[in-house]
Design brief:
This protein has helices at 3-6, 14-20, and strands spanning 29-32, 38-40, 46-47, 52-56, 63-70, 73-77, 81-85. The protein is mainly beta.
C-alpha cells in the first residue's frame, strides 16, 4: 500500500476536531515547550488588552497559546505548547 493511499485531506478530521473544541479548554492541561511545565490552561496568566488573548506559562512566562477574534473568525496559535490534554468527559 502506498502512502498516497492512506492520505486524506484535513476535512477527514472535522468530526474529531469538533469533539475536541466543543469542550472547555481551560480545564485541559498543556505542556510548555520552553520549560516542560504541565498545568491547566485556566491556571496560566492571560494578557488580553489587545484584539485577543495570550496565555503564558506560569513557570517561565513563555507564550503558550494565542487566541484572536475579529472579522467573524478566530485565529489560534499553539506554538508554545508541546501538547494539550483535554478530558473527554465534562469537568466538574
Amino acid at each position: 500500500m502506498e502512502t498516497d493511499d492512506l492520505r486524506l485531506d484535513g476535512n477527514a478530521v472535522a468530526g474529531l476536531l469538533g469533539e475536541v473544541f466543543a469542550v472547555d479548554l481551560t480545564g485541559g492541561r498543556a505542556r510548555c515547550e520552553g520549560c516542560g511545565q504541565v498545568a491547566e490552561l485556566g491556571a496560566d496568566p492571560v494578557y488580553s488588552r489587545g484584539p485577543g488573548a495570550v496565555l503564558r506559562c506560569k513557570g517561565c512566562d513563555a507564550v503558550l497559546v494565542v487566541v484572536v477574534r475579529g472579522a467573524g473568525r478566530y485565529w489560534l496559535g499553539f506554538t508554545g505548547t508541546s501538547w494539550i490534554e483535554v478530558p473527554d468527559t465534562p469537568l466538574h
